[in-house]
Write a structure and sequence with these properties.
The complex is a heterodimer of chains A (about 325) and B (about 350). Chain A contains 13 helices and twelve strands. In chain A, α4 packs across α5. The relative contact order of chain A is 0.14. With about 350 residues, chain B is α/β, with parallel strands linked by helices. Helix content of chain B is about 35%, strand content about 20%. The radius of gyration of chain B is 22 Å and the shape is globular. The two termini of chain B are about 40 Å apart. Classes of the chains: A alpha/beta (about 325), B alpha/beta (about 350). The interface between A and B is large, with 49 and 38 residues.
Chain lengths: ~325, ~350
């Protein structure tokens, strides 16, 4: 069986008022069945655009090339009717802001039942019973009453649970979570992550988690893909990435975190690692490393050509796009 | 405390919003007391709706508190008439979360940073310009930025301008309300380092309001944790993070994931169930009791008072903490009896 998601050389060009933006530049990634892969990066790195392109949810004028295979089918070749059966069916997506993703005019029970009608062919009492079951699965207390609630009557955490229940209604093989806990408080975030972990164990579905929060990644991911300026700069098993980040950008991100192992390691006065400058927005292809301008290890080589992704170790499947990767020494915690 | 610059005593703030509560009062801050020492950074940590921002606004009198006192350098701010506030405002400055909406889009950086000088000092034009330029340099920006408009700057640069504006008058107290929450990780690190450096070189006191425990741990000398309008625990950074006593602090620490998969996956801890109670009708007894795994009848019936955990000023507002300390003290008495 092929991986549930296989993305090859994805390129996305978006257009704003001043012209084209190269939002995604040749990203390849895969998510195995039952695997949790985190797509990590800061604002503007292209992680959300990558996620949206998987279900063809980008603006109509976006130019997308490459191949996106979901359970073996190339998403980019599907007709609008075919893509609709995949969305909310084999592949479901949960967004950051549950309030804008829910329809304010319908009860949440109604909205969950709609997915059940469309994708599972359930009707009436059967759909209601299943909606109730799904709401209990995501930890919504007093589910009978909540079924009749409207989105505005629920807290942010409850709405996000409803979104996850809706996503589960189609029994997806792949769940895409786009910053699912970013708008929530940490105690609510912990509850949502517990639910996600539990659902994955029970249903065996694969998860693609889009996030900027490395704490969340450390908590639930199996594998991590780090993006910078629209490109994949590093990919590794979660333990390898946190223990021995090889790309200077990944290492910089970890060092910039107040609670990370790397930040703690510096002796004397606590000091966070800084990455000078800012993430560039690319309007034309680059013939250099996109991170070179902010990188302390950059040389003329980095400014003259773009590094390709290469296997480096220490672990299997650890790849980095850098001419001068960080040493593979393990950081002591 | 004699070396306290700011003493907040039994602060209460209630609102009556026009809609949404059915005419009920919102108890945003319920009886909050704390001090900020000279040259100290106190972290005020809490989740959405805990009242931490309201506390900050009461201190700068953007809000008039319902009850309680805010004593700044011996003077009760809550009793100062509006006409006399100006002098105090020069000594207490504020930095806000959103660097996009807290800077006037039509003013250049030079004008933004010079404005407090024009409002509060009689400095000449030349002197104002020189002091603004120095403030900009102090926050790590270079002179060309002075001619720019806010929209031409990155988020990190804007927050630096906000800091320069707040510090140009060399205030004694800085109220920083989530100043790094809207920033990306790599930018945030620079602002946090800068704040730590500026505090050391300029010596101001700071009330640092944040929802992010790791940020508080990095920056603050002492930390106070708020829940539902009350401070539930306060202590030095070392004690609070190494030995949190209140179940809410414990669960907050347990809930914040550590960016290290090895440690994160070994962790276990108190998990709160449910969501914070409404601050329109806060629960009787301890505010946390509907969610607290340790709650019993006493917590439902009786609001706990602060228990002193250690001599360094570590306090926790919890019946269980009090009982643990009493229980721990008993065996010593037994030994004395024999």
């Amino acid at each position: 069986m092929p991986d549930i998601l296989e993305v090859e050389n994805l390129q996305v060009r978006l257009f704003d008022r001043t012209g084209p933006v190269l939002a995604v530049r040749g990203v390849s990634l895969s998510v195995g069945r039952g695997e949790v892969v985190a797509l990590v990066g800061e604002s503007g790195c292209g992680k959300s655009v990558t996620a949206l392109s998987l279900l063809r949810l980008l603006p109509r004028d976006a130019e997308v090339s490459g191949s996106i295979r979901v359970d073996g089918h190339n998403v980019l070749d599907l007709s609008p009717a075919q893509i609709r059966t995949i969305r909310g069916g084999d592949v479901a997506m949960v967004f950051q802001e549950p309030m804008t993703s829910l329809n304010p005019a319908f009860s949440v029970g109604n909205q969950i039942a709609e997915v059940l009608r469309l994708h599972q062919g359930l009707r009436g009492a059967e759909a209601s019973a299943r909606a109730l079951e799904l709401m209990r699965m995501v930890g919504i207390g007093d589910a009978e009453k909540r079924l009749r609630s409207f989105p505005h009557e629920l807290s942010g955490g409850m709405r996000q649970r409803v979104m996850i229940a809706m996503a589960l209604a189609g029994e997806p093989k792949l769940l895409i979570l786009d910053e699912p806990t970013t708008a929530l408080d940490v105690t609510t975030q912990a509850q949502i992550l517990d639910i996600v972990r539990d659902l994955r164990a029970r249903t065996g579905m694969a998860i693609l988690l889009i996030t900027h929060d490395l704490g969340v990644v450390a908590d639930i991911a199996d594998r991590v893909v780090v993006m910078y300026a629209g490109a994949k700069v590093e990919e590794a098993d979660v333990y390898d990435l946190f223990q021995a980040p090889r790309h200077p950008y990944s290492a910089g991100l970890l060092g910039a975190l107040p609670g990370s192992a790397l930040a703690q390691e510096q002796a004397g006065r606590p000091r966070l690692a800084e990455i000078p400058g800012m993430v560039p927005m690319l309007r034309a292809p680059l013939d250099s490393c996109a991170f070179a301008a902010r990188c302390q290890s950059a040389t003329d080589e980095c400014r003259a050509q773009a590094p390709l992704l290469e296997q480096v170790g220490p672990g299997a499947g650890h790849a980095v796009a850098c001419f001068h990767p960080e040493p593979a020494t393990t950081v002591s915690v | 405390m004699s070396d306290a610059l700011l003493e907040v005593e039994r602060l209460v703030m209630q609102f009556r919003p026009r809609r949404g509560t059915g005419g009920g009062w919102v108890h945003a801050v319920r009886d909050v007391s704390f001090t900020v020492g000279k040259g100290e950074i106190l972290g005020l940590v809490g989740e959405t709706g805990s009242g931490k921002t309201t506390v900050g606004k009461c201190i700068v009198r953007l809000l008039n508190p319902t009850a309680g006192t805010v004593i700044f350098d011996g003077q009760d701010i809550t009793r100062v008439p509006r006409s006399k506030l100006r002098g105090l405002r020069a000594r207490i400055q504020m930095v806000f979360q959103d660097p996009y909406s807290s800077l006037d889009p039509r003013m250049t950086v030079a004008q933004i940073v010079a404005e407090p000088l024009q409002a509060h000092t009689a400095a000449s034009r030349g002197e104002t310009r020189a002091r603004a330029a120095k403030a900009i340099e102090r926050v790590g920006l270079s002179a060309p930025v002075l001619k720019r408009l806010p929209h031409e700057l990155s988020g990190g640069q804007r927050q630096r301008v906000g800091l320069a504006r707040a510090l140009v008058l060399e205030p004694e107290l800085l109220i920083a309300d989530e100043p790094v929450s809207a920033l990306d990780v790599s930018v945030r690190a620079g602002i946090l380092n800068l704040l730590a450096d500026l505090q050391r070189s300029m010596g101001f006191s700071c009330l640092f309001i944040t929802h992010d425990l790791s940020v508080a741990e990095f920056l603050c000398d002492r930390v106070a944790v708020m829940y539902l309008g009350e401070i539930v625990e306060v202590g030095t950074r070392e004690e609070l993070f190494a030995d949190p006593r209140h179940p809410y602090t414990q669960s907050l620490l347990a809930a914040a994931p550590v960016p290290d998969p090895v440690r994160q996956r070994e962790r276990s801890g108190v998990r709160l169930t449910g969501e914070p109670a409404s601050n329109v009708a806060p629960p009787l007894g301890c505010g946390l009791h509907p969610r607290c795994p340790l709650a019993d009848e006493r917590c439902v019936a009786e609001a706990p008072d602060f228990t002193t955990v250690s001599a360094s000023g570590h306090l926790a507002r919890c019946h269980r903490v009090q009982e643990q300390l009493v229980a721990a003290a008993v065996p010593h008495q037994d030994r004395d009896d024999h």
